[in-house]
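User: Can you predict the 3D structure for this chain?
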Amino acid sequence: MLNRTYPYYLANEAVYANEDLIVENKYTGKPATLVALADEAAIDKAIAAAVTARMACQQMGAYERKAVLEHCVARFRERFDELAQALCIEAGKPLNDAEGEVTRLIDTFIIAAEESVRITGEVLPLDISKRAKGYQGFWKRVPIGPCSFISPFNFPLNLAAHKVAPAIAIGCPFVLKPASLTPIGALIIGEVLAETDLPKGAFSILPCRRDGAALFTEDDRLKLLSFTGSPVVGWALKNKAGKKKVVLELGGNAAVIVDEYADLDDAIERIVFGAFYQSGQSCIGVQRILVHESIYVEFKQRLVSRVKVLKMGDPSDRDTFIGPMISENEAARLHTWIEEAVAAGATLLCGGNRNGTMLEATLLENVSKHCKANSEEAFGPLARPELASDGASRWRQIRHLRV
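Assistant: Here is the predicted structure, written as structure tokens:
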């Protein structure tokens, strides 16, 4: 399906500069396609083009920006299966999850199209005293200017869309660096944008090596940096960003609370999905499961039974729930964390085995707070049920906060 070479996009135009980036099928580990990599000179040209396009983008009519976004919606619908298959191959995302992400891509562009003609301001009366009689104030939103976007591997379409679609809606030119492991979705977005009447220089989509991407962060011509990825990288980029505005969407160690009155059938299904869909590679993936002591034993038994039957395998198989992790290095990292936790006294309730990029859905209990499986973001198929005591005032406070 990906038996073609993909260009990068520089100032709205496809550039077949080279075939330097090999994108692998994350399940088979075999090369799936070749992608052109941008060098520093290309990135510099893209930023210069975005600066030149600033006024042209800003002066587009709202109806024109809406038309661009609606064109994207129509083309994404036409290419729905192609986009889903690309996610399945380049990200190892199970087909059901891949189709869900394409739907979110489309939804994001629909919302942006709707909002593009509703970007308003406000007139404020200031005559609250005799001195200010006849005075009015007003404010309006204006485009900030050229933007820099860096998107991650785990949602190659949706998280790129969250940056790209609003930029088009408001009239900001942008340069986008997709993750080198999963650039295809972003490049298909670029292919569709190239069909529109956006001013020349309005967008560039440039896969590049991390060590050559400094301009995305440090160049003062860019007025905003939006980064989604790990906290270590995100905070480091913020420190190098200079005076530009910075928007960071980083990782977490998400918890879910299961109260004694919870519907366990519903809770377990939601938790299993939240913890293990797309192999747990989500910044809001459930990692800690705090369970009321009165239901803990039953909940744990039922959760383990449910996790054990999750189908792991080829993500192109409609019945697969657990696909590969993004790379063997990432799978090995998390497998090491699991082994470290067990060696420190944790109980392995299920899973824990690895074969290449495939890591079983894993539940650990009684993980030491000093272990990485407890204190760090797993970003993989690992979750930890924990006993929460009703005798603790903390638990009573949590119950009062239920909505």
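Residues 95-116 form the longest helix (22 residues). The longest strand covers residues 286-292.
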